[in-house]
Amino acid sequence: MTGQRDDHRMLGRDACLSLLRSVDVGRVAWAADDGEVTVVPVNFALAGEDVVFRTAAGGKLDAVRSGRTISFEADDLEPALRAGWSVLAVGHAELTAEPDPAAGHRPVSWDRRPKPYLIRLRLERVSGFRLPLHGGGVSIERRNEP
């Protein structure tokens, strides 16, 4: 549902998916049994309304295989203009077959290490917001630490 909240313009699912198609890096997050949350960047693509990304053996693959809820976030910011957007999605992931190269949704990893597993994250909930140009933005205070 699209609405207003302060200077954030809330976005509906279709707008969120459209924005996700405009970038190729996002972050995948999951919680372990002990409650520790891991967040890692991934190169991704959309296959219909699903996020697909490659991975090697390790934490991401373990989280997928154990059926954990996975969060995915991507954004695009223009700090000088105090504008941008952010999309957050939540769902469950599975190992999937290689997509048809003609389908145009193969994630291309910036990391050249082998990533033999292709993951499909089925987006069950999607939300997002846009900070409009000159909409007040967010004030970020920077501190110089010794």
From TrEMBL:
Source domain of life: Bacteria
Entry's Gene Ontology molecular function annotations: DNA binding
A Pfam family it matches: Pyridox_ox_2
UniProt keyword list: DNA-binding
Family annotation (SUPFAM superfamilies): FMN-binding split barrel (SSF50475)
Protein name (Swiss-Prot/TrEMBL): DNA-binding protein
Originating organism: Actinoallomurus iriomotensis
